[in-house]
């Protein structure tokens, strides 16, 4: 994952309402949740919810699908996994390198 994409995704999740929306979607599972259910659960105005969902869709954390008159929001678990992997990718790398140098010395 590129640094710029990771930063954009983290920025969107850095807003309390968007983080709350995303966490609700993740709890909802792979089928996603209807927008109306999200609005009811979080008690946010429709226009506000639409704005936040658009931002999550833009960075690839959520996709939307329509079934009849119902619009579903589906969390993108692979995008979440990529973001988590990006953050953990070099975990303790400097510590391991330091320990390796100390072992050689």
UniProtKB/TrEMBL annotation:
Record keyword DNA-binding present: yes
Entry superkingdom: Bacteria
Domain HTH arsR-type: residue ranges: 1-95
Record-linked InterPro entries: ArsR-like_HTH, HTH_ArsR_DNA-bd_dom, Metal_resp_trans_reg, WH-like_DNA-bd_sf, WH_DNA-bd_sf
Keywords: DNA-binding, Transcription, Transcription regulation
Keyword match Methyltransferase: no
One MF annotation (Gene Ontology) recorded for this entry: DNA-binding transcription factor activity
Pfam families: HTH_20 (PF12840)
Designated name of the protein: ArsR family transcriptional regulator
